Amino acid sequence: MSRRAPTLEDVAREAGVSRATVSRVVNGIRNVDPQIQELVRRAIERTGYAPNRAARSLVTRRTETVALVVSGAGDTSDAGQNAFAARVFADPFFGRVVGGIVGFLRPRSLHPVLMFAESAEAREEVLTYLRQGRADGALVVSTHADDPLPALLADARLPAVLFARPSRPVPLSYVDLAHRDGAHLAAEHLLARGCRRLGTISGPLDVAASQERLAGFRDTLARHGHPYVPVAEGGFTLDSGITAMADLLDRHPETDGVFAANDLMAQGACQVLRERGRRVPEDVAVVGFDDSSIAVTCRPPLTTVRQPVEEMAARMARLLDEHIDGVRTDPTAVVFEPELVVRASA
To answer: 8-60 and 65-177+309-336: same fold?
Structure first.
């Protein structure tokens, strides 16, 4: 004979409180004394009680899921969509975003649902999913400056928070980094090392963060009397960093310092420099951006500008939670500060 599943009454009896108090704790109602909450949580652990999710959502009006949407523009064929997903999963940046989001959601029994929105049809699926109440809101990581999804979410008055400031202003909360300040740190460090013939590998120039990093690097060098900075555009991938570094060296063989707009491209730059017989950092100093795991495994380890991606993603999830609960009603911008991490490449 199977054992009876524990009930709210069992938890109340174990905790020595009323059934109504247990119900308020289980349903996340905020006006419960923290000591009572802890008492009930311990009773839940001892009894093994598992809340009925369907019943709980009737009370809280929450599904306890959020959509994690990776949005962009690209080839809408099956092959193109598969390639888009493959690029996302291959990028260590996305893994850090997911880690930060899950780190916030999981202790609160909230769960992300991954969705891709790289086409008009996929964007409509996201909007329908949210309108139907199948997720409480959306966390959006956009990969394209012309992405229409943020405006569509704002027009539909759906709860959403963006990773990175949108290129076109919309009344949605977002988290971002002071990208120009990060590029300024990279430029000042290279100049302080004595580099005078500097070049940069930018990210895709249809991405706002790439534009900001390039502008910050150029502005800082201009203030130090450098009117022209050679640029090779990359795509935030290892292969694009290899191609861009080779292009820079072909056009400007005298280059003695390089700022790459992310660590993957900086790793590609170091690879090309080794193949061309240039020592890093003795002949050419290299600075990356992100402070991802690649910065440590690269040879030599990368000097890089740290972007606290996990903390940014966790704040993004917290903002969405506050919007869903009605604690925060107005759009909010949270901008994090970069930090230079000095290692062996510069």
So the answer is: no
SS3 per-residue string spanning 252-284: CCCCCEEEECCHHHHHHHHHHHHHCCCCCCCCC
* β-sheet bridge partners, residue 232: 201
322 contacts 225 by C-beta, under 8 angstroms = no
Distances, alpha carbon 323 to alpha carbons 29, 95, 136, 209, 285, in Å: 16, 25, 10, 25, 45
314-to-25, 103, 244, 328, 335 alpha-carbon distances in Å: 23, 7, 33, 16, 13
Give kind and range of the element (H or E) at residue 110. Answer: none
Cα–Cα nearest to 184, from 208, 215, 210, 155 = 215
Q: Model pTM?
A: 0.79
Number of residues in the chain: 346
Question: What kind of architecture, by CATH, is found in domain 65-177+309-336?
Answer: 3-Layer(aba) Sandwich (3.40)
Going by C-alpha positions, the residue among 3, 2, 20 that lies closest to residue 11 is: 20
Instruction: Indicate if the pLDDT at residue 87 is higher than 90.
Output: no
What would the CATH number be for the domain defined by 179-306?
3.40.50.2300
CB-based contacts of 106: which residues, under 8 Å, 6+ apart?
none
- Segment 121-144, tens digit of pLDDT: 999 999 999 998 889 999 999 877
Domain boundaries, the chain: 8-60, 65-177+309-336, 179-306
Q: How far apart are CA 313 and CA 129, in angstroms?
A: 22
